[in-house]
Predict the 3D structure of the following.
Amino acid sequence: MYKKEISKAVINRLPRYYRYLGDLLEKDVVRISSKELSEKMSVTASQIRQDLNNFGGFGQQGYGYNVEYLHSEIGKILGLDKRYNVIIIGAGNLGQALANYADFERRGFFIKSIFDINPNLIGTQIRNATVRSNDELEDYIKINKVDIAAITVPKEKAPTIAAELVKWGVKGIWNFAPTDLNLPKDVTIENVHLAESLMKLSYRLSGKDEI
Amino acid sequence: MYKKEISKAVINRLPRYYRYLGDLLEKDVVRISSKELSEKMSVTASQIRQDLNNFGGFGQQGYGYNVEYLHSEIGKILGLDKRYNVIIIGAGNLGQALANYADFERRGFFIKSIFDINPNLIGTQIRNATVRSNDELEDYIKINKVDIAAITVPKEKAPTIAAELVKWGVKGIWNFAPTDLNLPKDVTIENVHLAESLMKLSYRLSGKDEI
């Protein structure tokens, strides 16, 4: 759909635009100038214009941006006009936190089931999702449409689980295990490495980053 | 200590180097060539050499890198030779997940206390940390050394809590609330925006990213 090469930096900013516009929508703001948006977001107005021009603009000279329209268009670019079935592997605190996060649903990500090996958890319900045994994982994936699997198991178990998920047909992996997964090219992996985030914080706290 | 301007991209890669070297250490690997390291990490050997040259090299021609030494030096650059006292605001699933993550401690991040408003949680113990009432937060920060506060409260409450934390003396904020915090320049903020991470995944899954 968008043949032009979009830089990673732009793509990294889009979810933030989307979040800001969503906040404005909630406050019933109808339109906003790139100047106002830029002040809210602490990026330059020209950066915003440039970023959005990658996708054909959306702004009107002298009017600014229609918040609802821009929100919906950026949502489409991000693929949020689709519905994603999500499963979580690992019903520990992190898996439960993800399952309880209602915001995901609003954006089209539906947590359908959670898998764990702990017999005390199997059969329990976390929000809309039932905890099932890992033994049922293969059948579940083969019978149900699973777009994304979030992996919240210990790092030692993550590579095997991920390889199985992919073998059974999952194409999107949201990985929280502190390890990099080597998976086929057609699988999309998004990593959330919490310890690395904390290290970036300590790096900057220890005053060596003057950028 | 390092006057040279280090790019954000390099800094973002350092925690990953640190993690890989830590994995090698656990496997008792003594030394590694930049070629081997590069294959493991899927970055080019010249990238690794360039990155590490920012900090004075560490490698020896024909020998490669001493894993333990490089691990420890990168640790120092990241500020991991220090000890950080961490508190968590919000004892929900996410706060509990962070409190239970033993890996943080190994790297010098000690979760000392968790604060919440839920009377059922106050007084309970999560690993090494006691859950305290938010009412005690001000006194706690003024009496104890708190280096980092992790914020895992709903987004509506995050800006107020963050402003208070900073007023009482906290300089490092690890923010999990899906909102940007406007705090004084001398405060270091590291954001973990889970919904945005999920949107980047859906963007790439919907096949518009051909980079």
